[in-house]
Amino acid sequence: MPRAKACRRARRGDALISTGRTTAHVTRLVHRPAAGEERVVAEDVRVADSFLARARGLMFRRSFRGDCLAFPFGDSVTRSLHMLFVPFDIDAVWVESEEVRAVERLPAWTGVGRACGDTVYELPAGAAAAVDPGDRLSLE
Questions:
Q1: Residues 6+ apart with CB under 8 A from 81
Q2: 85, CA 20 to 30 Å: which among 3, 53, 108, 138?
Q3: Sign of CA pseudo-dihedral 105, 108, 114, 118
Q4: Is the pLDDT of residue 99 over 50?
């Protein structure tokens, strides 16, 4: 398999910061596999579109609200996720220009993930089981 292009490390100030205080809602997240039919992965997608929404993520929540939490950043750099103060497992998907770069199951409390992407999706554990690198994910 050819190696993906190199991803630069995130620098302070790289995050796309919005002045909005609430999390925007998007209709759905669609999975288009390299082979096979497209399917809807999540019907209720929340977009973390402010600095505070991105910083909080899923921390301090007792359960997953909605089907997916999306973190759009605008540029593609190495992005890290942690599960500190998140009491449930999730699937994390790193996407670059709608192409899946990495998929990881992160365990509650101790999980850490890192990959390159311009968008990161957090889904309930098992929701991204059929999503593979090279597939396409898009918000509609």
A1: 57, 92, 106, 111, 112, 113, 114, 120, 122
A2: 138
A3: positive
A4: yes
